[in-house]
Amino acid sequence: MTNRYTASAEIYDKIYAEVVDYPASAGLLKWLIAERNPETKTLLEVACGTGEVLRHLADEYVVAGLDLSEDMLDVARVKLPNVELRALDMTDFEWGATFDAVICMFSSIGYMTDLDSLHGAYDRMIAHLNPGGVLVCEAWLTPEAFQDNFVGGLAVGDHTFRVHRVNNSWLEDDGRVSVMDMHHLVGRPEGVTHFAERHRMGLFTVDEHLEAIRATGIEAEHRPDLFMGRGTYIGAKA
User: Fold this and answer.
1) In whole numbers, what is the pLDDT of the chain averaged over residues?
2) 154 and 18 in contact (C-beta within 8 Å)?
3) Which residue ranges of the chain lie beneath pLDDT 70?
4) I want to staple 141 with a disulfide (CB 3.0 to 4.6 A). Which of 26, 145, 157, 164 is the partner?
Protein backbone atom coordinates (compact mmCIF):
# COMPACT_ATOMS: atom_id res chain seq x y z
CA MET A 1 0.00 0.00 0.00
CA THR A 2 1.20 3.51 -0.80
CA ASN A 3 0.20 6.61 1.15
CA ARG A 4 -3.09 7.94 -0.14
CA TYR A 5 -2.91 10.50 -2.93
CA THR A 6 0.77 9.92 -3.66
CA ALA A 7 0.90 7.53 -6.61
CA SER A 8 -2.65 8.48 -7.57
CA ALA A 9 -2.00 12.24 -7.70
CA GLU A 10 -0.85 12.24 -11.32
CA ILE A 11 -3.91 10.29 -12.51
CA TYR A 12 -6.49 11.77 -10.13
CA ASP A 13 -7.90 14.25 -12.64
CA LYS A 14 -8.26 11.59 -15.33
CA ILE A 15 -10.29 9.42 -12.95
CA TYR A 16 -12.51 12.08 -11.46
CA ALA A 17 -13.23 13.87 -14.71
CA GLU A 18 -15.45 10.82 -15.32
CA VAL A 19 -17.10 11.11 -11.89
CA VAL A 20 -17.43 14.84 -11.15
CA ASP A 21 -18.78 17.64 -13.33
CA TYR A 22 -16.37 20.30 -12.10
CA PRO A 23 -17.85 23.27 -14.00
CA ALA A 24 -21.33 22.41 -12.70
CA SER A 25 -20.04 21.95 -9.14
CA ALA A 26 -18.27 25.31 -9.31
CA GLY A 27 -21.42 26.94 -10.65
CA LEU A 28 -23.49 25.53 -7.80
CA LEU A 29 -20.90 26.70 -5.28
CA LYS A 30 -21.01 30.22 -6.69
CA TRP A 31 -24.80 30.24 -6.42
CA LEU A 32 -24.83 28.91 -2.84
CA ILE A 33 -22.25 31.46 -1.75
CA ALA A 34 -23.86 34.42 -3.55
CA GLU A 35 -27.24 33.54 -2.05
CA ARG A 36 -25.79 34.03 1.44
CA ASN A 37 -23.12 36.66 0.81
CA PRO A 38 -23.28 38.38 -2.59
CA GLU A 39 -20.24 40.50 -1.68
CA THR A 40 -17.92 37.47 -1.47
CA LYS A 41 -14.49 38.24 -2.92
CA THR A 42 -12.06 35.79 -1.29
CA LEU A 43 -12.31 32.02 -0.96
CA LEU A 44 -10.24 29.30 0.71
CA GLU A 45 -10.60 25.65 -0.28
CA VAL A 46 -9.67 23.18 2.44
CA ALA A 47 -8.42 19.87 1.00
CA CYS A 48 -8.11 21.44 -2.45
CA GLY A 49 -6.40 18.40 -3.98
CA THR A 50 -5.29 18.99 -7.55
CA GLY A 51 -6.96 22.41 -7.65
CA GLU A 52 -9.60 21.53 -10.21
CA VAL A 53 -12.43 23.19 -8.28
CA LEU A 54 -10.31 26.27 -7.59
CA ARG A 55 -9.50 26.49 -11.29
CA HIS A 56 -13.21 26.93 -12.00
CA LEU A 57 -13.69 29.43 -9.16
CA ALA A 58 -10.69 31.66 -9.84
CA ASP A 59 -12.66 33.74 -12.36
CA GLU A 60 -15.05 34.80 -9.59
CA TYR A 61 -12.91 35.05 -6.44
CA VAL A 62 -9.39 35.56 -5.20
CA VAL A 63 -8.75 31.94 -4.25
CA ALA A 64 -6.31 30.02 -2.05
CA GLY A 65 -6.06 26.38 -1.09
CA LEU A 66 -4.56 23.92 1.35
CA ASP A 67 -4.07 20.18 1.26
CA LEU A 68 -2.20 17.56 3.26
CA SER A 69 -0.73 15.95 0.13
CA GLU A 70 2.28 17.64 -1.46
CA ASP A 71 1.84 15.37 -4.48
CA MET A 72 -1.66 16.69 -5.09
CA LEU A 73 -0.48 20.26 -4.55
CA ASP A 74 2.28 19.77 -7.12
CA VAL A 75 -0.43 19.06 -9.70
CA ALA A 76 -2.47 22.05 -8.52
CA ARG A 77 0.50 24.43 -8.75
CA VAL A 78 0.91 23.68 -12.44
CA LYS A 79 -2.71 24.70 -13.06
CA LEU A 80 -2.70 27.65 -10.66
CA PRO A 81 0.79 29.18 -10.68
CA ASN A 82 -0.42 32.48 -9.22
CA VAL A 83 -2.55 30.99 -6.43
CA GLU A 84 -1.24 30.50 -2.91
CA LEU A 85 -1.36 26.78 -2.08
CA ARG A 86 -0.04 25.38 1.20
CA ALA A 87 0.55 21.93 2.66
CA LEU A 88 -1.46 22.06 5.90
CA ASP A 89 -3.62 19.78 8.05
CA MET A 90 -7.28 20.80 8.15
CA THR A 91 -7.56 19.96 11.86
CA ASP A 92 -5.05 22.53 13.10
CA PHE A 93 -4.17 24.93 10.28
CA GLU A 94 -3.55 28.64 10.75
CA TRP A 95 -3.45 30.64 7.52
CA GLY A 96 -2.84 34.10 8.95
CA ALA A 97 -5.81 35.61 7.11
CA THR A 98 -9.58 35.20 6.92
CA PHE A 99 -11.85 34.72 3.92
CA ASP A 100 -15.35 35.51 2.69
CA ALA A 101 -15.96 31.83 1.95
CA VAL A 102 -14.40 28.54 3.02
CA ILE A 103 -15.26 25.34 1.18
CA CYS A 104 -14.37 21.68 1.71
CA MET A 105 -15.58 19.48 -1.13
CA PHE A 106 -15.89 15.90 -2.37
CA SER A 107 -16.15 14.28 1.06
CA SER A 108 -12.69 15.36 2.21
CA ILE A 109 -14.12 15.96 5.70
CA GLY A 110 -14.56 12.17 5.80
CA TYR A 111 -10.85 11.75 6.48
CA MET A 112 -11.67 12.81 10.02
CA THR A 113 -12.11 9.47 11.78
CA ASP A 114 -13.32 10.58 15.22
CA LEU A 115 -15.43 13.35 16.70
CA ASP A 116 -12.42 15.26 18.05
CA SER A 117 -10.91 15.62 14.58
CA LEU A 118 -14.32 16.44 13.07
CA HIS A 119 -14.79 19.25 15.60
CA GLY A 120 -11.22 20.41 15.03
CA ALA A 121 -11.68 20.65 11.27
CA TYR A 122 -14.91 22.62 11.50
CA ASP A 123 -13.41 24.88 14.17
CA ARG A 124 -10.44 25.74 11.94
CA MET A 125 -12.56 26.32 8.85
CA ILE A 126 -15.03 28.60 10.60
CA ALA A 127 -12.24 30.44 12.44
CA HIS A 128 -10.98 31.48 9.00
CA LEU A 129 -14.27 33.08 7.94
CA ASN A 130 -14.83 36.82 7.90
CA PRO A 131 -18.06 38.12 9.48
CA GLY A 132 -20.81 37.16 7.06
CA GLY A 133 -18.53 34.54 5.54
CA VAL A 134 -20.00 31.34 4.10
CA LEU A 135 -19.04 27.74 4.86
CA VAL A 136 -19.86 24.98 2.36
CA CYS A 137 -18.78 21.46 3.32
CA GLU A 138 -19.68 18.35 1.32
CA ALA A 139 -19.69 15.35 3.65
CA TRP A 140 -18.85 11.67 3.35
CA LEU A 141 -21.51 9.02 3.92
CA THR A 142 -23.48 8.58 7.13
CA PRO A 143 -23.21 5.27 9.05
CA GLU A 144 -26.51 4.02 7.67
CA ALA A 145 -25.66 4.92 4.07
CA PHE A 146 -22.32 3.10 3.82
CA GLN A 147 -22.46 -0.37 2.24
CA ASP A 148 -20.26 -2.85 4.09
CA ASN A 149 -18.25 -5.31 1.96
CA PHE A 150 -18.99 -3.32 -1.19
CA VAL A 151 -16.86 -3.91 -4.29
CA GLY A 152 -16.71 -1.10 -6.82
CA GLY A 153 -14.79 -0.21 -9.92
CA LEU A 154 -14.36 2.10 -12.85
CA ALA A 155 -12.32 2.35 -16.04
CA VAL A 156 -11.26 5.53 -17.81
CA GLY A 157 -8.99 6.43 -20.70
CA ASP A 158 -8.34 5.54 -24.31
CA HIS A 159 -5.78 3.65 -26.42
CA THR A 160 -2.93 5.90 -25.22
CA PHE A 161 -3.63 5.86 -21.48
CA ARG A 162 -6.03 3.79 -19.40
CA VAL A 163 -6.79 3.35 -15.71
CA HIS A 164 -8.80 0.54 -14.16
CA ARG A 165 -9.61 0.98 -10.47
CA VAL A 166 -11.20 -1.67 -8.26
CA ASN A 167 -11.95 -1.14 -4.59
CA ASN A 168 -13.23 -3.28 -1.76
CA SER A 169 -14.52 -1.83 1.49
CA TRP A 170 -15.41 -2.78 5.03
CA LEU A 171 -16.27 -1.29 8.42
CA GLU A 172 -14.10 -0.83 11.49
CA ASP A 173 -14.45 0.79 14.93
CA ASP A 174 -17.96 -0.53 15.59
CA GLY A 175 -19.18 0.64 12.22
CA ARG A 176 -18.00 4.24 12.58
CA VAL A 177 -15.03 4.07 10.19
CA SER A 178 -15.17 2.94 6.57
CA VAL A 179 -12.05 1.45 5.01
CA MET A 180 -11.47 1.16 1.27
CA ASP A 181 -8.54 -0.44 -0.51
CA MET A 182 -8.28 1.07 -3.98
CA HIS A 183 -6.23 -0.92 -6.50
CA HIS A 184 -5.15 0.83 -9.70
CA LEU A 185 -3.94 -0.69 -12.95
CA VAL A 186 -2.41 2.05 -15.07
CA GLY A 187 -1.69 1.31 -18.71
CA ARG A 188 0.68 3.39 -20.81
CA PRO A 189 2.41 2.55 -24.11
CA GLU A 190 5.59 1.69 -22.19
CA GLY A 191 3.85 -0.78 -19.88
CA VAL A 192 1.30 -1.45 -17.14
CA THR A 193 1.84 -0.61 -13.46
CA HIS A 194 -0.13 -1.38 -10.31
CA PHE A 195 -0.45 0.38 -6.98
CA ALA A 196 -2.93 0.37 -4.11
CA GLU A 197 -3.99 2.98 -1.56
CA ARG A 198 -5.97 2.53 1.65
CA HIS A 199 -8.52 5.16 2.62
CA ARG A 200 -10.00 5.31 6.16
CA MET A 201 -12.97 7.65 6.45
CA GLY A 202 -15.18 8.44 9.40
CA LEU A 203 -18.93 7.87 9.26
CA PHE A 204 -20.78 10.66 11.06
CA THR A 205 -24.48 11.32 11.46
CA VAL A 206 -26.17 14.49 10.26
CA ASP A 207 -26.63 15.57 13.88
CA GLU A 208 -22.93 15.04 14.61
CA HIS A 209 -21.97 17.32 11.72
CA LEU A 210 -24.46 19.98 12.77
CA GLU A 211 -23.37 19.80 16.41
CA ALA A 212 -19.71 20.18 15.42
CA ILE A 213 -20.57 23.28 13.40
CA ARG A 214 -22.80 24.74 16.13
CA ALA A 215 -19.99 24.26 18.65
CA THR A 216 -18.13 27.01 16.77
CA GLY A 217 -21.00 29.43 17.33
CA ILE A 218 -22.76 29.36 13.95
CA GLU A 219 -25.85 27.62 12.65
CA ALA A 220 -25.86 25.48 9.52
CA GLU A 221 -28.32 23.65 7.34
CA HIS A 222 -28.02 20.15 5.93
CA ARG A 223 -28.81 19.68 2.24
CA PRO A 224 -28.92 16.00 1.23
CA ASP A 225 -29.60 16.73 -2.44
CA LEU A 226 -26.54 18.71 -3.53
CA PHE A 227 -23.39 17.67 -5.41
CA MET A 228 -22.90 13.88 -5.09
CA GLY A 229 -25.86 13.43 -2.74
CA ARG A 230 -23.82 12.55 0.35
CA GLY A 231 -24.96 15.58 2.32
CA THR A 232 -23.74 19.17 2.26
CA TYR A 233 -23.55 21.55 5.23
CA ILE A 234 -23.94 25.28 4.64
CA GLY A 235 -23.64 28.06 7.19
CA ALA A 236 -22.78 31.73 7.49
CA LYS A 237 -20.81 33.45 10.23
CA ALA A 238 -22.61 36.29 11.97
Assistant:
1) 97
2) yes
3) none
4) 145
Domain 9-142+204-237 is of which CATH architecture? 3-Layer(aba) Sandwich (3.40)
At the top level of CATH, the class of 150-202 is: mainly beta
Contacts of residue 91, Cβ cutoff 8 Å, sequence gap at least 6:
112, 117, 120, 121, 124
The domain spans of the chain are 9-142+204-237, 150-202
Which pTM value belongs to this model?
0.97
Q: What strand order describes the sheet that includes 177-188?
A: 151-157, 162-172, 177-188, 191-202
On whether the CB atoms of residues 161 and 187 are closer than 8 A, the answer is yes
Stated length of the chain: 238
Inter-axis angle of helices 206-214 and 115-127, to 10 degrees?
50
Closest C-alpha to 142, from 214, 222, 32: 222
Using one digit for the tens of pLDDT, what is the confidence trace for 14-67? 999 989 999 999 999 999 999 999 999 999 999 999 999 999 999 999 999 999
| 237 close to 130: Cβ distance less than 8 angstroms | yes
- Residues forming beta bridges with residue 194, ordered by sequence position: 185
pLDDT tens-digit map of 57-72 = 999 999 999 999 999 9
